[in-house]
Amino acid sequence: MDFLTKIVEFIHSTQVLQQFKEVDAGGLFTNPWFLVPFLCLLGYMLYKQDFREIVVIIIGFGCWHISGTEYMNTLIVGEEIQLAKVLPVVFGAACILGVIIYMYFGKSD
Which residues have CB under 8 Å from 55's CB, separation 6+? Predict the structure, then answer.
């Protein structure tokens, strides 16, 4: 437990969570220092026909986008979790996890 406490303290001291909240998505995708390597990575994956990894990247960016919406900000009001709003999020996460498990373990190449 002491090890996990040190990790949590490190994350809080570096303010990683705050940095994730303040990411400028429009600026990120217009920055050539990010865009050129990202497009090269996607091009390489298309060349290698590694569509599973492309789908995982798209899912990751989709989850990142959804986590910043107003809907996610209203999941907790005061100190109470809004169960009616959490259930669709849990269902969506289960579906995404099911797709990823199917892509890696259920489908043969």
Answer: 99, 103
pLDDT in tens, 18-68: 777 777 777 878 888 988 999 999 999 999 998 889 999 999 988 888 887
Spell out the SS3 assignment of the chain: CHHHHHHHHHHHHHCHHHHHHCCCHHHHCCCHHHHHHHHHHHHHHHHCCCHHHHHHHHHHHHHHHHHCCHHHHCCEECCEECHHHHHHHHHHHHHHHHHHHHHHHHCCC
